[in-house]
Design a protein that fits this description.
heterodimer; A: about 725 residues; alpha+beta; Aldehyde Oxidoreductase, domain 4; B: five-stranded mixed sheet
Amino acid sequence: MSEIIIENLSRRRFLQGSAGLTLGFCLPAIATAAAGKLGAAAAVDTEINAFLKIGTDNSVTILSKHLEMGQGSYTGLATILAEELDADWKQVRVEGAPADATRYNNTFWGPAQGTGGSTAMANSWEQMRKAGASGRAMLVSAAAKRWNVGAPEITVRDGIVSHAASGRKASFGELALDAARETVPTDVKLKDPKDFRLIGKQARRTDSLAKTNGTAQFTQDVFLPGMLVAVVAHPPLFGATVKSFDAGKARAIKGVVDVVQIPQGVAVLASDTWSAKKGRDALSVSWDESKAFKMGSDEILAKYKEMAKTPGLIAANKGDTAKSFAGAAKVIGAAFDFPYLAHAAMEPMNCVVHLKSDGCDVWNGEQFQTVDQGRVAALFGLKPEQVRLNMLYAGGSFGRRANTQSDYVLEAAHIVKAINGKILGNPAVKLVWLREDDMRGGYYRPMFHHALEAALDGSGKLVGWRHRLVGQSILTGSPFEAMLVKDGIDQVSVEGAANLPYAIPNLTVDLHTPTDIGVPVLWWRSVGSSHTAYSTEVFLDQVAAATGKDPVALRLELLAEHPRHAGVLKLAAEKANWGTPLKAAAGERRGRGVAVHESFHSYVAHVAEVTIKKDGSIRVDRVVSAVDCGTAINPDNIRSQVEGAVGFALSAALSGEITLKGGRVEQGNFDGYPLLRIGDMPKVEVHIVPSTAAPTGIGEPGVPPLAPAVANAIAAATGKFLTRMPFNTTELAA
Amino acid sequence: MIKLTINGKVHQVDVAPDTPLLWALRDTLRLSGTKYGCGQALCGACNVLVEGSPVRACMTPVSAVAGRKITTIEAIDTQRVGKAVQEAWRKLDVVQCGYCQSGQIMSAVALLSQNRKPTDADIDNAMSGNLCRCATYVRIRAAIHEAAKALA
């Protein structure tokens, strides 16, 4: 089902500044009574533009078109706008924007609103700057009229509008109503970056308070009058369906209100979560498994290895690779295996849907507005704009909430459809996935098998590179298919491999995309780079080892035409004292390893220091990172994201693995799918390359180079290159 | 009816005795700062303090804590240690998605109430039951040291 098509709009083209930008102003500017502000002298919020409201109480509310799932988007977008507005950071707060692609589209995704691909800052940079500058101009114009002075004589700083000659001052709040009546300027002057006061400084997160006192609102925290909670019995196999069910015992449980069959399984609706869970557990469901997917992951891997024996579709081709291998003095090769990975966000998937006479209200940590809105509208026979999405914080996502098939959102909508008209008052329904539903619900990072070969000439020079990948396509059948699947090649299957930055004269990258594997797959923080960075960077170290070259020196030699890769590599190596010996305790081995990778137009290098114990168990002691993501909007958030990416990626390297047996997912909770705990978290030191380039993302790019840096450190200490994730450390026992 | 003493207030809740404290707090009393993460006492997102000790609300039936003093994130700022921990968390911008942080804060408060000068090893030990998928662990360690400094 891909009735929603996302148009192609080149990110590069946007970065060159030629894409059309709109501030999506709501005209005429209107004043609305702010919710919760009661009383005769109630404060009102004036809508200055689609992204900015100024309250008569002197509050500055910035509307975020992007989901805040931890990556700091609310703070980042607010920083950009507040900078040009010259607001005082203390008066700034952020609200999630409604779903409205005409005003809040991701400018890299054409007419679609959504968050992903580490684009939040990059696609909003000019838009939010202009929204802030425009608001500032309207405040200045209002003050000039009120004081009967020329606008050029007026200055704005830290939320105060001043006229120096007359000594007059006004707060934003005092000018709000007049400013909203001003004409929206079409041409605004943006600041010279040297005058930035917030961008590049330490603007604190806007969500720290609510997230430390229990008041932050996640989907899980939505309570509406009469709302029912739904817990669903899902099929035990992908592709299985309900044959029949007996709800007798479930209905007998106190609190259970109804039991309904939906395409996704059988839903138990109750007055509260615990009753719904008890009801779900009491169901007896018989499943039709005749069309279900029944392979195990061992069998899938065996199939992939077989497929890797023949050439796939060409994803990249340079020079004459066959000739370079035919004439090589030495050929080395390696193969790598990557498992399915669950996103395992701390907040399992959930969604609240309320069907009303005039449309449908949805509450969700919403990552894919336009797609979800379209699908829910189609199910209910509504117009998309009748589906009103209320944006909430997401308790993590890592890609899971941007579901190409709107899986959990549609599941909630199907439950509402099934009870429509049956229950007095047509209550709202909160679909709650328990941890096991979330972990077994599919949409994993796809399993991949990679095979690489390198051709070396007589002097040890790397003259040829072959890289074959086998794995499912994420985007085929998704709204992004037209944009990102070209000639049978899903661009996100080969990203990081097909665009290998190293100067190798002859290179071939080819891809097999199995289409008969029934495991739903999805982007997982850093998408294709989550596996391609590993195989390419570990294999390059194998080349370095085979030719007796230093891993940093070899990379720099091959990166002459990629200064931003080279820049982060040099910075990380220097800060980590690359080349100096590491002390190891008796009976332990220690090593230092490096990896560099570009993803989403941001460049990250990690140097990892690792200790390997006698039994082969490893500990990552320290990671030194260097980052180039263009203009650093919030340096502290960049550090925070890279620290978190290190832990997230290390979790996958050490223990992340979803396995299937006879089609059944073997893991269900954090016992079977352990996540990194604090004791395994290394020290992390993050260095940011100063840059005036347009900002790019930082939510994902810290992930890809971490596991290869750790593997290369292990190899430096033991001589063994680990070729599967998660690591099999028993190979490392001394 | 079960009598629960939460944040200094007594509540009569009409739930089955086997109902986990987590769902009584969230669905019945609408104290939604305490989070559901796993339901199996594996992640610590549901940590509350019972008589000052961290307890996994998802596996604690309400019947087991009837009449005992329960503190949740909503009232942690009424304690000196709780306030110091929250302030340190804010000063260092520990949070990312924030979903696990109520539980992290409860564990940190319990640690600092027992040990005013924890080492990194003490912190790793006391916080080992709390998962953070965003891996804010570097800052959790730093914020606990920061709070310890403020309390000294």
